[in-house]
Amino acid sequence: MTYGMLEMHHGKSGSMNYFEGIYKGKRALITGNTGFKGSWLGEWLTMLGAEVVGFSLENAANQAHFDMLSPGYKTFFADIRNLEQTVQIMAQVKPDIVFHLAAQALVIDSYHSPIETYQTNVMGTLHVLEASRLAGVSAVVVVTSDKCYENKEWIWGYRENDPFGGHDMYSSSKGCAEVLTQSYRSSFCNSKDGMKVASARAGNVIGGGDFSANRIVPDLIKSVEQQTPVEIRNPLATRPWQHVLEPLSGYLLLGMNLLKKNKVDEGWNFGPSIHSNCSVEQLVSLSTACWSEISTKNNTDPNQVHEAHLLMLDCSKANKMLHWQPIWELKETVEHTIAWYKTWHETKRVLTKDQIIQYGQEAELKQLSWAG
Fold this sequence. Notes:
This protein is an alpha/beta fold. The protein has helices at residues 36-47, 65-69, 83-93, 107-112, 114-134, 169-188, 216-226, 245-259, 280-290, 316-321, 330-347, 352-365, and strands at residues 27-31, 51-56, 74-77, 97-100, 139-143, 196-202, 204-206, 230-232, 238-243, 267-270, 277-279, 296-298. The strands form 3 sheets. Strands 3-2-1-4-5-6-10 form a 7-stranded parallel β-sheet, sandwiched between helices. A 3-stranded mixed β-sheet has the order 7-9-11. Helix 1 links the parallel strand 1 (27-31) and strand 2 (51-56). The longest helix has 21 residues, at 114-134.
C-alpha cells in the first residue's frame, strides 16, 4: 500500500508541562490510537506538546471516542499484521518513541477468532518492534495486559517476575507477547544508546468513551440508551478496576525514563490500590448510585466460556522504583467515568480534556514525581 492511499487527520498540538516536559516537541507514534486507551493517550500527549502520529485500523463502531475528540494529529489507517506496511510507516514517521497499544483486546473474541488474536497480539507486536528498530526509534513501550500472568486465582497480586500463561487464547497471546518482548530486547537492544524497550501491564481499565461490546461499563451505558436491563454474566468476578488515566500516567512515566536512557527496560505493573479491587456486582452498585437510570439483571450462565474469577496486580515495583502511584480510588474512578457518559448522553459534551486537566491538578496536589 502506498502512503497516498493511507487516510490521515491533521491538526496542531497543545502544551502541558508534566513528565519533565520531555514530550514537548517529541514525535510519538501510537499504535491502536483509535481505540479506547489509545484515544485518551493521544489526547494527553497532544496536550503535553508532543507531535502525535497514529497507526490504527479504522473504527467500525458507530460511536468512537477517537472520533468524538476530533483529534488534531495525523493517523495512518493500516494493519500491524502487515510487516511491509508497518516498516514503511515507521520509516516515514521516524518517531522518537512508540506506544504500542494495538491489539485484539477481548477475551470472548479470542474464543471466536483465535488465529486473528495471535496474529495481532503476537506477530503484530513483533512487526512493531522490528519496524521500530529499523527506523532508529529511541524508545518503545509495549502494552500488554494483567491477563498475561498464569492465573492461579491467588488472593494476592501478581508480581512482574511471576510466570506468564493463560487459560484462554487472549490471555496466552498476551503472555506470548511478553516473552517475545523480553527475547527481542535481549537479542537486539543491548547497545547503551540504542532502542530501549519496556512492557506495561495494567488492570481492568474503565473511563468515558469506551463503547466496546462485552465490557461491563459500556454495557451499563447501553442499558440507559436502550432503556433495557443489561445482563450481568459474572457478578462475583473480582477485578483490579482503574480509571484509564491511571495506567496512562504509568506508560508516560515509563516512556520518559526510556527516553532519558534510565535502566527501566523491563516489565512493569500499573494497577489500582488494593482497595479498588472489587466484584462486578460492587462496580454495578457504585455505577447505579451515580446514575439511577442504569438497569441490570443477573444472568449467570454455567455454560459460558471461561473467564478468570480473581485477578490482582502487585504494583510495588512501580511504586518504589518509578515513584508511580494511582490517584483515584474506586469510588472516584466510577464517579468520573459515569460523569463522562452522563454528560455526553445529556449534552453531547466530551469531558476527556477536562478530566485530563483535573487528573494532572490532583497529581500536583499529591506531589507525584511526574507532575512536579
